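A favour, since you know our structure tokens better than I do. Go ahead and set the record down below.
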Amino acid sequence: MMKKLLILGAGTAGTMMLNKLSNALDKNEWQITIVDQHETHYYQPGFLFIPFGIYKRKDVIKPKRDFFPSEANVIVSEIEKIEPKENRVILKDSKVLSYDILIIATGAQIKPEETEGLKGELWHKNVFDFYTIEGACALSNFFKHWEGGKLVLNITEMPIKCPVAPLEFVFLADSYFTERGMRDKVEIHFVTPLPGAFTKPRASSILGDFLDKKNIKLTTDFSIARVDNESKKIISWDEREVDFDVLVTIPTNMGDEVITRSGMGDELNFVPTDKNTLRSQDYENVFVIGDATNLPSSKAGSVAHFQADVLFENVLSFIEGRKPQEKFDGHANCFIESGFGKGILIDFNYETEPLPGKFPLPGVGPFSLLEETKMNHYGKVMFRWMYWNFLLKGTELPIESQMSMAGKRL
């Protein structure tokens, strides 16, 4: 009888795993099925560029099927429930899919309704997100006609997808309004629940310096309780207030609701996952990848790519009856757009903070770590082409999934 491998979610992580495993597993032995409710694939790192007119909607979307191997069994449907004890998944139309191995790649979404008043009468009028295509496009339209005032960016709580994106947003806003000759009319304010500008202290102090240099005000340790739509204020639990003319929010990020319905998640719907093997902590034939995990690594496409290399090996190990390898080290690699055609690059993992140096070749680069260069900006721009043409197709890239200390200065 054919064995069944089921992948839930056809975003970045799910599509990579589908391609890697389709190439490796015997077609006569294994049937691979992928389930997703949406037909469109979004290049999410591109959402950041839409408000500033750098990308348009058409630059960040393609049909998901363009990236699936021809032999894949593709089901377009919502998922009602995972029943891991029975090794089966129930779809919205009550269709039942059984599996021998399950890969959960259901991602994360924004939940503005988790914060009182956030999705109030100003939503997509003076309060915007840029983590959805709708939010990014609405903000783009708003900025075209805005004459200035107080722009506040607020992160509601961690973890979020792409932890550097909020910083990139304020850097790009500084650049955008300068180039439009109205930077003196715009006050930019970065409001975060963290004790500094970023999650990692070393990078945080450097990025905090960039905020200073660019005349961007920083407010730390701000845990938002509610948004007052009438007086245009965000108010923290300890009753501090920040007023705004336009609020750019990064709402609470949560895992897919199917995880809650299945009783498989934590309080934010993320699936408890072994941080080194990517196997579910509760079910040995269930693996989790990308934003769906509860891992302390960044929720970002580069991390899903490094995870995919490890998970691919571990799924094959599981099929062969071997123990999964504890090889994922939390590796993340992020280009940070800093505006004016420059960028910063950081490379880190669970144990090691971002360090200065050259990447990926020691002494040569061409990219510089923790430094602002034009080359790093080109790396960010080039990544979209790499993403569509290599990354999603599961192609091996010349960067190791484990972080290397080569080229880094302590």
